[in-house]
Amino acid sequence: MRELLESLTTPYSLTDPVEQRPDLAFVTAGRGQLRPLLMHLRDKEGFTHLVILTAVDWLEEGEFQLTYLLSDRTHGRDIGVRVMIPRDEATMESIHDIWPTAATYQRELREMFGIDFPGSTRLNEDFILEGWADIPPYRRDFDTLKYADETYKQRPGRETRDPAQHMKEQLYPDGK
Amino acid sequence: MKEELEKRIVKGPDGIEFEVEPLRDYYCEAAPTVMPQAYSKIIEGFFNWARAESLWILGFGTGCGAIEMRPLMTPRFDAYRYGVQWRPTPRQSNLFIISGYLSVKTLKRAIRSYEQMQNPKYVIGLGSCTINGGMYWDSYNTIKCLDDYLPVDLYIAGCMPRPEALLAGFEELKKLIRAGKAEGANQYAENFEWYKANQKKVILDWDMPDYNW
Hints:
The complex is a heterodimer. By secondary structure, chain A is of the alpha+beta class.
């Protein structure tokens, strides 16, 4: 894994290589480098399987982090390629022509984070949220609790307890 | 409105073109009606006994509770010995078990399935999620109070209830039916407007007819 990272770092100007386990590593790539890097990993290094494409919302930094997790079945190793994109009017190049399954992930990211992937198939069709009009719910500035309280009726009489405190009171009623 | 619901000209296999208006042709426009009692109390009691002894469940798992049905319908717990069995289509079943959390997308399908079931029909809410949201109480996409949307005859509490709890629930439901108290379908017909208003409040893209026969 280390040799692979070392051989990739200079030609694709990768940053922050993290070797989490002997068979799992993460690197950060620039937007423009992503496609050649993925093609290289798929065709030359044997990472033929796209495990997942997911996003993290770094609200304070004003960025989305996209993680492309690839798997090499022959050697039993995984590599995660991270790409940081600006949060405002987030768009990213689609990779559905490299892995057709990516179209589904991109459709989900479009709905849940509002990231646009121009050209991706069926991108703007509803995925899970049908007729959603609010801001995308996985964005961190979306107030889930407030939305749930306003939209769905709560049955009165529900109590919420802190599990640790509750068990303490149950097991040690005299407070010791 | 979805494309498949719009009025269009269709060419049949014999080459003849005809007009199809799905909302009128494929669906019933009439709202459900209250099913009257049988002409005599003894006959109604007999009917209720028969209904209680043949609970046919719609095989529609809506949440994680659906996993409890597999041991229940297979030899480990074997619900079939109580006259309970699972059916593949809403037309053949009379008991709908809402098995766990119900997201808005699934709620829409659940309503369609429920309305396609024939009278008499019953609904069991399974697990905490159907009662008050359970662990999904703060979710952006999950309803918290099932009886606002479908008429529930019986709730089985727990997260998740074991198959034994479901068997006990079936016995309770049988008692309710025999006592003539499981009148969910009639309640639904009587308060149809109220149920529809609640449903439309959470289902944002209502693109189906009000009554899905």
